Amino acid sequence: MRLADDTRGRVPFALLGVVLLVTSATVATTQFGGPTATQDLAVDRAMREATATTQTALREAVADAARDAARNPVTQRAPTAYGRVLNDSETFEDALRVRIYLAAREHLGAVSATAGPVTADPALPGVDSPADLRAAKRRVHVSRAGPNGTALRVRIEGVQVRASRAERMVGEKHVAPTVTVASPVLELHDRVERFEERLDAGVTSPGFGQRFTAGMYALAWVRGAAQYRGAPVASVVGNQHVALAANDAVLGVQRATLGDTDSRSDEALAAAWARALATDLAPGSIPGPVVEETLDEAERGVGRLDGSVRNETVDVSPTAAADRALAASNETTLDRIVRRSYAVDTRVVSAVSSSGVTTDGDSRPGPNWTRVDAATRTERTVAGASSADTPTANVPTDWRTFRRYDRRVTVREVTTTRWRRGDETTTTTSVRASEHRVSLAVVGRHSPESRVARRGVDGVYEERGALGGPNLQGVPSAAVDRVVTDRGGADALARRAVGGTLDGDAVRVLGDRPAGLRSRLDEDIAALDRRVRNVSVTLPQVDVGTYAVSPPARLAARIRAKRGDLIDAPATYDGMADRTRVAVRRAYLDSLLDSLDARAEERRETRSDLDESLGERGSSLADVRRSLDVATDDSTDPGPVGSTDGLGGPLGVTVDTAPSYLTLDPVARERFGDGAGSVTPLDARNLNWVTVPYGDGAGWFARLLAGPERVSLRSAAGTLRASGRFSNSSATDREALRGEVRDGVAFVRGRLARTLADEGVCGTTSDCRGVVTAGLGRWETPAARALALANGSAAERVTAAASVSGGEERLAATLRTTTREALREDGARPTESSVSPVSEGNRAALRGAARQVATDAGEEATNRVLQRVLNRTLDDVPLGLPVAPVPGYWYATLNGWSVSVRGTYERLTVRSRRGARDTTYVRDGSAVAIDVDGNGERERLGVAPRVSFEASTTVVVVVPAGNRGVADVDGTRDERSPGYD
Known about the structure:
The chain is of the alpha+beta class and 981 residues long. The chain has 29 helices and 28 strands. The radius of gyration is 50 Å and the shape is elongated.
């Protein structure tokens, strides 16, 4: 009985398990009638087969949708009802979900499974409105799959599987199938997105801006250095160079983000590079290896600025400051220092002590008398006294006692008083006596104005020490004469001390100087000057040129650090002559440091003005420094992504761009299969800060150097001399400029003659003018004389013509200093209006020379044009912005280019082949429309704009100081490509 009960207890649960297993896939409806068990099994089989087939259909749908989403991506939604279904932040992913849903619905429509009389069909809800599409998008869940995320995992909610028999539904279920497809569509999209992000990155982030800046620097520095060394480089930075750097930068970003580049782009870049070299630098056009060396450097391609160029240094010495300091060590200055060194301040100090006071006589005759008046007579009697009985005079610190006097002073005050009482008058006499002990001391100290450290002097008041001089031997007796004898003697001073009228003011007494002191000081200061001129600081040339460091400030710091060694003060001076030597050295160094400090302040002001001028043009010195750092920092260059292995095999990426090379010239759209008209794939502009001087307006920089509406004598003279080889300016304009240059030379000559007269070199003013004329006699033209004055060589010739005996070094330094100061005054600077017409004529001639070089294929003609016209002109006409362009202060020459570029690919294709299928991602700007609701009309979802970029950067080139600087000399300061505007 129990067995039977147990059996009955187990069998129903087994049957229930079967029923539950079946109903997990099928839900039978009772309203259609009760099916038989055989019919229920048919429904189950049909449903299972339909569900299994759904997986395959959905996998194909996802693959198709992924390929369609890649061929026609949407990255910006359309302003339509269906376009607004896509989110701004996930536009591409949302469009992919929409495509997957619609493709899945279409593929499921072709799926059907039959089991006997039962048919099962999977389906997704239809889309008839934007709201339906938004709900459909939310049913699709997309994520990355595979080892490296190069496959798609898609889950679709709400797939309905219905079973029907004789057109009656007999079963229904909802499933959310998940499929994984080896499609790299998200990876390709992400790579293109990273490509665009890197194209839009500025110089502070890895990407196009950094690569483009680095490439522009590499090109500009190689070409600028070549021009400075003598290569016939007419345009240091041209738009063809901008195009080279831009294309090279784009290809670099392609490799780093897409994993490959268009092979045709690499070939086109190489060809464009070769064409640029052929037109820019013609081998054999100048003697020597300059051009060949430049070609070798340039063939390395654009890229990071070569370290050997970036790390070039400049040695800066205090030449001009030393000239000024040596010039200041003239006879007047040395005499003043000697007087101070041999000067002693002397004075009398005293101490007074008083003894008892006695009175004698009646001061009042009696009662009722009225005093009418009184008169007191003071008598002071002085006698010698013992030092033991007198107080000690208080000698101030650092003062030395030369002589002491001890006195006893007796003071009698006799007072006579007249009295009245009625008609009577009478007088009385009273005597008040006191005694005082007085100590007097004649003290002295070296003059506090002496420019020397206080320390002992060997034999200061003895005849000994350097030069065997008298030192201050006679000063104590002279001090006694000045402050004691000349004031009436010690007794008189004692009386005044008691009476409180002693004069304690210091009197300066000068000691005798040795006969050979002046010549010794001249020799010593000359030796110090030579030593100071050998002090130098080595600074990065580019930091000097871009005002990142201040040479005068660095020099001042170096000299201050060596100051003690340069002054060479001993622990104890070897007499007053030695002390004077140190004082002269200190005065020289003070003058030199004052000059360097003043120059450093001028440099700070110029840097501020330069920064302000750049700011008006959208740049700054900070931008310059950032671009330089980018050009030399390899760590900012990200590596390529490379190939990725994942689900479906390796991700082999190939890239195809149209055009393959972004050219500055217009290109017909039909080449890209994109209708009529033309486009310019690349637009560029470069603005040279300073061209051949003061032509189409280097004015904003020129005014930093020479002041408003004035041009430096050097620039004007160079322009005048260069015009002698051209006929593009009128004879009237050239003569007007020659007159202004002649006037500038006359102004400086007048200053030189005055200096010679002040130095006592000449007997008369006429004689001094004659010496200057003789010194400048080797230069025959006004331009040549002006250039000689500007480069400092004229001062040496005038010194030689002066024929002085001794002191030649100081005279030359004085004349160089006079010349520098005179050149900065308006009297020495021609007007800009006189220079501009001739400068413009020179520029026109250079433009013609550049055109001739570009069109004439003959090597002989190239040599003739470039050597005879271009190179000589570059030697005469200052190029660029001289950094502190005063002889002795000229550290380097700077020039800059503000560069802007815009580029667009009409089509970018990134393809990945896996097995027999390709996934091709295309960005060509096409609008994307899909028939969402099946009515035969396409609804616009959005667009994927063409891949484009835009960047601006600042490029500076710094070359050493010298006549030949760096600039574009082809006559084009503001160069714009055809499509830039």
